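Below sits the subject:
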Amino acid sequence: MIPRPKEVKTLENYCLQVFFENGETKIYDMSELIKKPFYSKLKNKSLFNSVKVSDITLEWVTGQDICHDELYNNSRTI
């Protein structure tokens, strides 16, 4: 079972520091993802910084979200 995110912080270069319920902390790099049309609004730093944990995913005020499977499996552990 994939752990759920419990907290998120934005970092430089469109990266997210994600704290998971199992105690792991990982860095998710969104720099390539925001080049895609669905995420392109997040190039705006103030919108990117609006990310929040929403149930089992991360979500922005503009409606974009990322599945917890993607976050956990494609992040680097710190």
